[in-house]
Amino acid sequence: MHPLQIGITGGIGSGKSIISTIFKTLGIPVYDSDSHARSLMTEDALLVDLIKKEFGEEAYTINGSLNRAFISSQTFGKKERLEKLNNLVHPRVGADYANWSDLYKTFPYVLREAALMYESMAHLTVDKMIMVSAPEQLRIKRILLRDPHRNIDQIKAIISSQWPEEEKLKRADFVIYNDDKKMVIPQVLELHKEFLTIAR
After folding, report:
1. Could you tell me the pTM of the whole model?
2. CA–CA separation, 199 vs 5, rounded Å?
3. Under a CB-based contact definition with an 8 Å cutoff, are residues 29 and 107 in contact?
């Protein structure tokens, strides 16, 4: 018996991590795909081997950590190379998520958070999808405050590499609006109540 599995996504700067944190405070286990992917890129021997084969030994430093500057230079603005990396990483994250969710069989539901939930087809592994929505200009403003090392052109390049907001909204089962107009906590509480009902 598996718990109900809920996916949560949203474009960069939409605030999906904040929403996930609210669910966590309600006692719901959350799998952060992006942070697990970062760990797997150094801890999963199979994935490390695949990345070295594709990008060369230079993909890792002498101490075994990922050479982020090198990987970034190989993939930023290079759609095919980025897709190649994602095609190596996403299946390993999927396997890791399956093992992780097995640990929480007694919970009514679990959350899988990922920026590229639709792009990686990970939405097919969950029962319902939440989309966190915010206007693009507000997202850019948030990212500039959060990531001072990024400039507007870099942020727009990341946004354009993700599926359009409208496309994800069409496919989502639920939408949380994090647009600084609607309060997010009541929206999360409403969904929490609904998921508990579905899980029963």
Report:
1. 0.87
2. 9
3. yes
CA distance 128 to 145: 31
If you average pLDDT over residues 89-101, what whole number do you get? 93
Residues 6+ apart with CB under 8 A from 78: none
Q: Going from the N-terminus, what domains does the chain have, and what CATH number goes with each?
A: 4-199 (3.40.50.300)
Residue 14 CB-half CA count within 13 A: 27
- Asked if 48 and 42 count as a contact pair (C-beta separation under 8 A), the reply is yes
- Which helix (DSSP H) or strand (DSSP E) does residue 104 occupy? none
Q: How far apart are CA 89 and CA 176, in angstroms?
A: 28
3-state secondary structure 140-200: HHHHHHHCCCCCHHHHHHHHHHCCCHHHHHHHCCEEEECCCCCCHHHHHHHHHHHHHHHHC
The whole-angstrom separation of Cα 98 and Cα 176 is 26
CA dihedral of residues 12, 13, 14, 19 (deg, nearest 10): 110
Model confidence pLDDT, tens digit, residues 122-177 = 999 999 999 999 999 999 999 999 888 888 888 888 888 888 889 999 999 999 99
